[in-house]
Structure to design on (142 residues):
């Protein structure tokens, strides 16, 4: 398994554990009120679960499982995929902490969302040459 896939899957599992913990805390709060500020964790919970866990796991598996290219660079331009890994994690963390920064948090959340979008675009650019028709040996479709 490629090193990037290992890192993406491990990070996705950390995001899953974090999303699960935040969700459990919010659910516990519904029955036994802790602090009204606990609901500021809702956006972080959704971001960790939807983008940190689901999207990152999909990207990691796609990097590993998509058809490899011939030649020395069988996984394509790998630094683009590493960049997507950094962007998605930075974006998820920025969005998660943004509620605690008041008005500046809006700018931080926007930057986080832009980083997440950038991760998706960069990963799509990376993986595009590896998308082939079933059974095709070249990049051309029959």
């Amino acid at each position: 398994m490629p090193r990037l896939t290992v890192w993406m899957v491990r990070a996705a599992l950390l995001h899953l554990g974090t999303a699960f913990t935040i969700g459990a805390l919010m659910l516990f709060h519904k029955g036994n009120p802790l602090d009204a500020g606990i609901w500021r964790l809702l956006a972080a919970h959704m971001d960790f679960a939807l983008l940190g866990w689901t999207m990152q796991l999909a990207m990691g598996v796609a990097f590993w499982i998509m058809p490899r290219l011939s030649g020395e660079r069988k996984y394509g331009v790998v630094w683009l995929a590493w960049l997507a890994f950094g962007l998605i994690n930075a974006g998820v963390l920025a969005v998660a902490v943004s509620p605690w920064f008041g008005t500046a948090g809006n700018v931080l959340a926007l930057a986080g969302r832009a980083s997440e979008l950038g991760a998706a675009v960069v990963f799509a650019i990376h993986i595009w040459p590896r998308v082939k028709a079933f059974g095709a040996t070249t990049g051309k479709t029959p």
In short: The two ends are 30 Å apart (CA to CA). The CA atoms of residues 68 and 74 lie 5 Å apart. The helical segments are 3-31, 42-65, 78-97, 104-127.
